[in-house]
Amino acid sequence: MNKNPTTEQISELIKIYQSGDIDKAENISISISRDYPSNPFSLKILGLIYEKKGKYTDSIDANKKAILLSPNDPDLYNNIADVYNKIGKLNDAIEYYNTAIKIKKDYFLSYYNLGIIYQKTNNFNKAEENFNYVLNYKPDFIATYINLGLTLDKSKKYSEAEKIYKKGIKINNNIFELFFYLGNTLQVLGKIEEAVENYKIAIKLKPNFFGTYSNLANSFHKLGLFREAIQSYKKAIELNNNSPETFNNYGNLLRQLGNLIDSENNFKKAITLNPNFAKAYANLGNVYRMTGKINESIKAYEKAINIEPKLHSAEAHLIFQKKNVCDFTISEKILKKSSTLGITTKSIGPFSAISWNDNPEEQFLRSKKYVEENFNNKNFLMNHKFNYKNKKLKIGYFSADFYDFPSMHVMIGLLENHNKNLFEIYAFSFGPNNNDWMNKRVKSAVDHFIDVANLSSKEIIEKVHNLEIDIAIDENGYTFNARTELFQNRLSPIQINFMGFPSTSGADFIDYIIADKIVIPDIFRKFYSEKIIYLPHSFMPSDNMKEISSKNTTREEFNLPKDAFVLCCFNKTYKISLIEFDIWMRILNKIENSVLWLLESNEQAMQNLKQEAIKKGVSPKRLIFAKKIPISEHLERHKHADLFVDTFNYNAHVTANDSLWAGLPVVTKEGKQFAARVSSSLLNSIDLKELITKNTDDYEKLILELATNKNKLSKIKEKLSANKLKMKPLFNTELYTKNFENGLQKIFELYQNGEKPRDINVSSM
Question: Do residue 67 and residue 117 come from a single domain?
Answer without folding.
Answer: yes
